[in-house]
Amino acid sequence: MKKELIQLQHISKSYDGHMILDDLNLTIHENEFVTLLGPSGCGKTTTLRIIGGFERPDSGRVIFDGEDITELAPNRRQVNTVFQKYALFTHMDIAENIAFGLKIKNKSQAYIKDKIKYALKLVNLEGYEHRMPDTLSGGQQQRIAIARAIVNEPKVLLLDEPLGALDLKLRQEMQYELIRMKNELGITFIYVTHDQEEALTMSDHIVVMNKGYIQQEGTPEDIYNEPENAFVADFIGDSNIITATMVRDELVNILGTNFACVDKGFGENKPVDVVIRPEDVKLVERGKGTLPGVVSHIIFKGVHYEMEVQAGGFEWLVHSTRMNEVGSEVDIRVDPFNIQVMNRPASEDEEAIGVAE
Amino acid sequence: MFNNRKTSTVMSSPYLAWAFIFIVVPLGMIVYYGLTDDSGAFTFANIASIAQPEHLKALLLALELSLISTVICFLLAYPLGMMLAKNKMGNQGIITTLFILPMWMNFLLRTLAWMTLLENKGIINGVLSAMHLPLIHIINTPAAIVIGMVYNFLPFMILPIYNALAKIDDNVIDAARDLGANKFQTFMRVTLPLSVPGILSGVTMVFIPALTTFAISTMMGGSKILLIGNIIEQEFTLSYDWHLGSGLSLVLMVFIIINMIISAISERKESD
To answer: Which of A141, A191, A251, B165 would suit a FRET pair with B257, their CA atoms being 20 to 30 Å apart?
Structure first.
């Protein structure tokens, strides 16, 4: 088990009576790529700003490497931040931007020069020392923002939606760059995003948040394959979320038809939600599957076809590399381990908290 | 908008005509009068007359008082600009209104109000004597002129500084703090340099009217203290010596141009 680096203990924060974070507990380990993932307003950026020291929690403690840093000013924390809109100093050239933190710490000229060179090499922008920030593209500015942060050798790098302003191609490139940098530096990255694909691509550990509560934590595989509630299932990737009844262990009734599954311990005849990923829905010849349906819509998406199938009064989303004509009569079949059964929250508040009892 | 060159020429012609009739022509006339004598012969005498002791004294006093006023305006305006820029939502409206409201009144009226406040038997001294405190004698001194200048020109310093400060992204300030700068270092290395364009335009907008004013010095300084503006005004309105007045105006223009060149150079340095 990796060493615990940051602990957020019972953190609450509200603005103008509006609750942003409610009793949040989170542990972040050394040398991990952690992503805080959630829709806007879920409290992910506030969480990051509390770790950075730009916000003070109303209650709760921030423990860093065993030390309570809740009241510590941002300039005294061993943490550096890469801001969403780069936040470069426009009155300084690139070298001065990168040197900013080092000059404050009174490092020697030679040391600073070495560091600038090293940092520019790390972000693939060698030779940009004397350019001004506004002559650089968005992607380049973001790299400089990263360089400026990492020369200070932080134990943790905080990244607040750093790729949000970039176009798709550049964003994908930068995702791989970030993974490479993280491995090269061997430090912890805490990354905030609302983009589930970004989170799945880069993270060692994903924390899904909604309405100020942590919904689920785990590896990208855990989060994708075994979402704990409908919110997580819906937020991460496309999915069919269907209200169903757990008949007994390993048998669930979906839309009037019994499906074999692998989940246990929900009790008998309990209302539940099931998640079935569109790529896990198999369309087979009529009579060979579990639930009969009719293909109502088909779109070619490149890698696969995206189809809508009316079956049991529900519109199933299906991804398949084989196409079925619109109007064709098919059966739906789902392998037992591809049915993810979740507790159904009794109320919206409970849904936000994401209690799994 | 006007891709068509012809259209844009037509559209801009009223402004060009305006600029020509009311800016270029009068400037040309001042240059002409400034460089000629009564007989129309070319001469540097009008300009050289700045070296006369009373003219020189008025110029130096005007420079001194307008510099002092500019510095005071800057010292008052900067903290206020920071306050305004900081709470972008809060009570900014009230504070701004408090500073803008007086500007809706005529500038001579406002200066007149200061006269009645500062007069030897004015309101301030009335209050002071009622409280048995020593009276102040400010009216008709350079200090009164400085008060008048600061009061009248302060908004012109606040607005550009506020604009420059409000434009600074909060994240940039956070970034400086994040990189280890304390509040003072953040101010000196980030906030202040980023607000230089605002400071420069504020300085220009206070210094130039303060340097050339004659109304404030006439009202607040009695007729005892003459600034270069008063001398020029008197040449035109009392002595009817347009040549001398224009010559001195040209000298004054040199200082204004110097100020603007300094502004332009520092601004270019900023953007480089």
So the answer is: B165
